[in-house]
Specification:
alpha/beta, Rossmann fold, pyruvate-formate lyase- activating enzyme, six-stranded parallel β-sheet, 14 strands, 14% strand
């Protein structure tokens, strides 16, 4: 069969379209790696390549997160009008399979690694089921080497994405990862990870370990980092700020080639952290932790969510002062977005605070719920203010371009900041034009 994997794009000039550095979608290349060699495969990322709806194809596999689901449905409808079979999967379809089924011949619910070959066999025999759900969680040691050769050679910030664990041991109210996987945390054998590193054609380029929490198990993390320290690699990943309290672990990370960590600080308000269930975070330890990572040469890409119940309009300036004082290299600064399936969605729904279920607006840049301590307009404008100010020339000079202290993390965070400075302005103009009242 001829199989095409399709990844929908963000609307042109929307916030994440213009500011997001693009990454390949690891799940598509993993499924491609699981596909028997008798099939012909293509991966089409619509953010980089136009979709040919008239192509000769036997099966189209579409995956999309919530804000891209409407575009994913449009793509599915176009292919089905031409008589092509379509399967839709991913986190949004997993939570709303009946909605997704309206636009597809079949829906893959949850992880699909261990039902993919069965689905392909059924398509070939004309016995495709309406829904597929594997019985057990994926055994990560059975994962194949991803088919990176199917990715376009240019257009991505990172080409080398590797997963060493799945899930997260914590249980944050707003998190889609925990909502999908529960509080499970599965680890992949370090020997399997090393085998994949050896397979990389661009092994000297940056690696992004896409784990939601690289250090959810300290024993596994130590074994992994010890292995990585034997290779000359440069990499970034994700982890909690309390990792910085373990000086031995921070030193091992630096020795292993870590240039940056994506860290979910989430808030500077203790009441917010309690409400969201982020009990592992201690605001009093934030600044010392950041300094310890910086001293080890590890950059900090901070995540702060705006709009939680104890946020008021002063929270935006509070964050900007914190970011500049601690010289945070980069930041993900979204509006709180209650994705379907999360506990925050259920709570806000019960409280009557969900304003819309137009999934295209669930883009983390648009207010879709009623905040408690500010108006919708104050939260929306605060979001633009905090992103515009953080990625401004004065802020960049204070945070990352220090003439007497050049960090190795500047290699990646310098170009990122410079690229986002004009992009945020463009995205804000697009948003305001789109939302102008007639």
């Amino acid at each position: 069969m001829k199989i095409t994997f399709v990844i929908p794009r963000w609307p042109k000039d929307s916030f994440w379209d213009v500011i997001a550095f693009k990454f390949p979608l690891l799940s598509t290349s993993l499924l491609a790696g699981l596909t028997p060699s008798s099939h012909q495969l293509r991966i089409v990322d619509e953010s980089l390549t136009q979709i040919d709806f008239n192509q000769e194809v036997d099966l189209v596999a579409i995956t999309a997160m919530t804000p891209l689901a409407p575009r994913g449905y449009e793509i599915a409808d176009e292919f089905r009008r031409r008589g092509r079979k379509v399967v839709i999967g991913g986190i949004h379809a997993s939570w709303l399979p009946e909605e997704a089924k309206i636009h597809a011949d079949s829906v893959a619910i949850g992880e699909a690694d261990e039902v993919w070959v069965e689905l392909l066999r059924d398509v070939g025999q004309g016995t495709m089921k309406p829904f597929y759900r594997q019985k057990e969680r994926t055994d990560l040691d059975h994962l194949p080497i991803p088919r990176r050769d199917l990715f376009p050679p240019k257009g991505y910030l990172f080409h080398n994405l590797i997963q060493t664990t799945r899930g997260c041991p914590y249980d944050c109210e707003f998190c889609s990862v925990t909502a999908l996987h529960g509080k499970t945390y599965r680890m992949r054998s370090v020997s399997e990870v090393e085998k994949e590193i050896h397979s990389l054609e661009r092994s000297k380029a940056y690696i992004f370990f896409v784990d939601d929490n690289l250090v959810g198990s300290f024993s596994h993390a130590r074994e992994l980092l010890t292995m990585l320290s034997h290779h000359r690699l440069r990499w970034v990943s994700q982890g909690p700020i309390h990792i910085a309290e373990d000086e031995e672990m921070v030193s091992l990370m630096a020795k292993a080639g870590c240039h940056g960590l994506f860290i979910g600080f989430e808030s500077l308000r203790e009441d917010n952290l309690r409400l969201m269930g982020k009990r592992i975070n201690r605001i009093a330890a934030y600044e010392k932790g950041i300094q310890r990572l910086h001293d080890a040469g590890i950059g900090v890409y901070a995540s702060f969510v705006f709009g939680y119940d104890y946020d008021d309009p002063s929270v935006f300036d509070e964050f900007l002062e914190f970011a500049e004082r601690n010289r945070i290299e980069g930041a993900f600064l979204p509006i709180l977005t209650p994705f379907p399936g999360t506990r925050i969605y259920q709570r806000l729904k019960q409280e009557g605070r969900i304003l819309t279920e137009d999934w295209s607006k669930y883009d983390m840049a648009t207010v879709v719920f009623q905040p408690k301590r500010m108006t919708v307009e104050e939260l929306q404008e605060g979001f633009w203010k905090v992103n515009r100010s953080f990625y401004s020339i004065p802020s960049m000079l204070k945070r990352i371009f220090h003439p007497f202290h050049i960090r190795r993390s500047l290699i990646i965070f310098g170009p990122m900041n410079l690229g986002l400075w004009p992009a945020v302005k463009k995205a804000e103009r697009y948003f305001k034009k789109l939302n102008e009242k007639p």
